[in-house]
Amino acid sequence: MVMQTHVVDHPLAAALLTTMRDARSENATFRSALRRLTHMLVYEAMRDAEVEEFPVDTPVAATTGIRLAKPPLLVPVLRAGLGMVEQASALIPSAGVGFVGMARDEETHQPVPYLESLPADLSGIPVFVLDPMLATGGSMVHTIDLLVARGATDVTAVCVVAAPAGVDALAASGHPVRLVIASIDDGLDENAFIVPGLGDAGDRQFGPR
Ligand code: PRP
After folding, report:
1. Has the ipTM of the complex gone over 0.95?
2. Whose CA is nearest to atom 18 of ligand 1?
3. Cβ(150)–Cβ(120) under 8 Å?
4. Ligand 1 centroid from CA 201, angstroms
5. Residues with CB under 6 A from ligand 1
6. Which long-range contacts (CB under 8 A, 24 or more apart) does 32-39 make?
7. Which atom of ligand 1 is nearest to 136's Cα?
8. In the chain, domain spans
9. Nearest CA to 38 among 159, 135, 155, 203?
10. What is the residue-level pLDDT of the chain in tens, covering all 209 positions?
């Protein structure tokens, strides 16, 4: 299945991604770059959002305004996605927020869910899943399984870096999903870390767990 993929190719995004890749960047520097890059990714992800017209009066005359027809639900995948949600919310103040917690088992590389806090009915609601990393794709596919089970039919994965295997896994899931991302990297190493990647985005924001 062909999946719509939008790589945000912009000098400002590339410079922020470089800060995140740089092993010398401290946690605070990494968090700041992630916040600022999230602004650009979400801005691009909203480009085709459905809008509706409504009458508005300027101080001078009546005109037609526009507003979002369906504000999305933002779903950060804990922990790493937490660093994206504040900026995404600031950009889309009418968006709701749900939470999914998932930690990848270091040996099997399989996602282990530990938190699910989502509205029961997601039919008709666009959902933006926020997670900086798409490595094997296991965590993202599992998250989208949860959303689709609640009726979601319009899901956007907003990520910073992916491995081609993760993009393929997402496409092969057959779910109604598109991907907005800053970079698709070379591949995965033997520990299923993205190469060159940026390390572990959770650890780099919050320290090791
Ligand atoms: C990382 C990352 C994704 C997942 C990607 O989280 O934030 O959620 O791994 O890997 P996958 O595509 O192979 O599933 P991690 O499990 O390290 O948890 P953390 O965010 O709490 O650090």
Report:
1. yes
2. 103
3. yes
4. 8
5. 77, 79-80, 102-104, 109, 111, 131-140, 166, 192, 200-203, 209
6. 34/83, 34/84, 34/132, 34/160, 34/201, 34/205, 35/83, 35/84, 35/86, 35/87, 36/87, 37/13, 37/160, 37/182, 38/83, 38/84, 38/87, 38/88, 38/130, 38/158, 39/87, 39/90, 39/91
7. 13
8. 5-48+71-206
9. 159
10. 679 999 999 999 999 999 999 999 999 999 999 999 999 999 999 999 999 999 999 999 999 999 999 999 999 999 999 999 999 999 999 999 999 999 988 889 999 999 999 999 999 999 999 999 999 999 999 999 999 999 999 999 999 999 999 999 999 999 989 999 999 999 999 999 999 999 999 999 999 98
Using the atom order of ligand 1, give the atom closest to the CA of residue 134. 12
Name the CATH architecture for the domain at 5-48+71-206. Answer: 3-Layer(aba) Sandwich (3.40)
| Whether this model's pTM surpasses 0.95 | yes
Q: Ligand 1: which of 34, 100, 102 to mutate, judged by most atoms within 8 Å of the beta carbon? A: 102
